[in-house]
Amino acid sequence: MVTTLTERIENYIEEHEIDKKEFVRRMGYENINKGLRRLHGWMAGGLQEKKYPGTGEQIEGLARVLPASKIEIKQLISWEKQARKLEQLEKRRQDDRYFCSIRTTKFTSGTRTFPGDRDEQEVIGEVREIIARKMEDDFRARSNYFRCELNTPDCKSYHFNKEGEITRTSEATPGAAVFGWEVNGHSFTFVE
Known about the structure:
Helices cover 43% and strands 21% of the residues. The chain is of the alpha+beta class. It folds into 2 domains: 4-92; 96-191, no CATH class.
């Protein structure tokens, strides 16, 4: 996905006849490989707003190099994030399956896909049965890290506790504050 931020980076590199390594050097990266990984991420549309040690924020680094202010860069990032969220939401609405992910520890998870022609309450009942079996069979499922989420074809998300009770529901809608999540190559968006 080509973004405005990507275009600005590419234009700068071309106009100043430098390579990507020099671009990240000018941003303040001492670890060029790390800078290149981040650069490829930005150019794919995913800027991380975390600090990188010793050289300031990534937005400040971009503002130092590009002919744009920090405010402009933040606005570009905001627009690009919203555009990606809308794309993800539309993509999800075209898939009529239910997706369930159960995570028993930080490092182990299982997923289950249900056909879209099933009744939502029927799928919720089956998820509850899966949780009950997990609690009986898998000691790791009893950990404090247990997570279970069911994503429906209409972009609703149900969050279950260890007892199979729905603790929270949310729905991804255009313009809402959403976060992305990926299971088996399927990206989901949920309202926080």
